[in-house]
Amino acid sequence: MLKLREALFEAFITLCIGGLIGAALAVVSNLFVMGVEHLGAQREASTLLTFDVGGEALSFSSLLFLWAAAAAVLLIKSSMGVTRWAGPADSIFAAHQRYQPLDIKQGFASTTAAFVSASGGASVGQYGPIVHFGATIGVWVRRFVSSRLSHDIYLACGVAAAISAGFNAPIAGVIFAHEAILRHFSMRAIAPITVASISASALGNFWFPNTASLDIGVAVPSLSEVVPTLMLLAPIFSMVAIVFMLSLRQASELANKVNLSPTGLLFIGATICGLVGVWIPEILGLGISSMNQMIAGEFAISLLITVLVAKILMTALCLSCGLAGGMFSPALFVGVATGALAGQVLTLAGFADIASIISVAAMAAVSSAVIGAPLAAVMIVLELTQSYQYAVAAMMAVMVCSLLTHRLFGHSFFDRQLLDRGIDLSLGRESIALSHELVGPCASNDYIAASNISRGDELLKEMQAHGDTEAYVVDKEGILLGKLSIYTVLEAGPKAVADFMDTAPLCLYTHDSLEHAMATAGQFVGEGLPILEAETGRLMGIVTEGSLFQAVIAVQKQARHQERS
């Protein structure tokens, strides 16, 4: 009876947590898109700074909007004390360890700045910021709700709700949370994540029935006509995805090398993007209407080439110069443009008109390579189109594209961002945990200390009584001078041990991680490793191989329990 009551209570808490997070993300996600679309419409309709150029009226209002956005972003950054914008990479890392939790203030500031940037017309996306905001909301809710669920499950609930509300794709939200964020399947996690995802989609549809989204038709030719074509085109999609990700990295590296203040860099990026947007307005903002037009085949080949190149360059420029936002939506845009271009070229070459389905498949392929979630990308297509044929076609392109991109670039752009910070997710949750646990707490005071004037024969008796084969020579302040083995003590005999000790023994420091300690222990033969205070060289204790292994096993056990519970 007690177990039944506990199970029912846990189910109730799960429903409450998932429902609360889902409702919050339904509101935020839809208001984000609606707000950006509304302000984007105001920007497009504006007649400010309109000049006659070659007999054609050109409006430079995009410059004013982007300057205003840059100023607002600068204000948000300075007023909230944020040094850098956070994104999905931070959410992924936070889900894999508990030592560096998400900064809630940074999460709110990043989402607000992304809204301002996209509203002003910056070539950035909304899904990345909303995903990170969802993770932030999940972590924030955990502060007020006590349950058996771990922090990564709360975080994943917010991420699933964000994807679900953004695409109206609840199944894709659940898969994305497991595939891209948690990277393992957990029975304890599946229920709250599912509740959050379904709640976000259902409440979003109820409260905001007319939110702008992708409009994909479902007139599908035979798969026998589409699949071979997509198999041939998938390497091209992979190359486009790699070029897109490399441009983001190269632009960021270049921005770091340029001798300009962050403020100057921010306004330079806004100015260049605004000027490009005067002649190519399709690349400004979220680009949802432009994507719908490309899928419908309304763009000429020349315009498709132009917007494809411009979108890649302007997204790299905006993000590297400090305008906040994501790269998920631009990846969708780049994928659609690539697919639409390939489809129109094939149509002109005499092939069947399959440009629409190629556009959708390319969108899924390029975006999946960028975010590292191929199954979620396929499910997004399935839920957007309600078409089995579209989903199967997209799956072929996604899997080939993801395989090539994984081999040539990496698992995802987010993983590459973390790798640039020295965080290798491919090593697993256990490695991350070991890299954060310090060896200092493992130090033991159960060792023999001697002075440099101690005689070997006297020290030998003490070692025999204590059952030790090693001793440590320290001065009056406890600073380690050297290490003695029982063999060197025997060699010293009645003489002082100072001339017989190892003055440069293999050591650890209190700030060293268990991961580093294990690597060091692999080069060590002996009874124990001395642990020193880095600043002074004072001996804080020793750690034996046995106690080191026990500490590592405890960390590994905890990480495995989290993945399998």
Number of discrete domains: 3
Determine the CATH superfamily of the largest domain: Clc chloride channel
Q: Please indicate the percent range of residues in DSSP E strands (runs of 2 or more).
A: 5-15%
Mean pLDDT: 89
Number of helices: 22
Structural class: mainly alpha
- Give the overall form: elongated
Report the sheet with the most strands, covering strand number, pairing sense and barrel closure. Answer: 3 strands, mixed
CA(first)-CA(last) distance: 23 Å
For the secondary structure, the number of strands is 8
What share of residues is helical?
55-70%
Arrangement of strands in the largest sheet: 3-4-5
Tell me the Rg in angstroms.
29 Å
Low-confidence stretches: none
Structural account:
There is one protein chain. The protein contains 22 helices and eight strands. It folds into three domains: 10-207, Clc chloride channel; 223-421, Clc chloride channel (Orthogonal Bundle), CATH 1.10.3080.10; 433-564, CBS-domain (Roll), CATH 3.10.580. The strands form three sheets. The chain has a three-stranded mixed beta sheet. It has a three-stranded mixed beta sheet with strand order 6-7-8. It has a two-stranded antiparallel ribbon with strand order 1-2. It has 565 residues and is mainly α. Helices cover 65% and strands 6% of the residues. It has helices at 2-45, 61-79, 88-95, 104-120, 127-142, 151-167, 170-182, 187-207, 223-257, 262-279, 288-295, 301-321, 328-348, 355-371, 374-385, 388-408, 413-420, 429-436, 456-466, 486-492, 514-521, 545-564, and strands spanning 50-53, 56-59, 449-450, 470-474, 480-485, 508-509, 528-532, 539-544. Helix 21 (514-521) links the parallel strand 6 (508-509) and strand 7 (528-532).
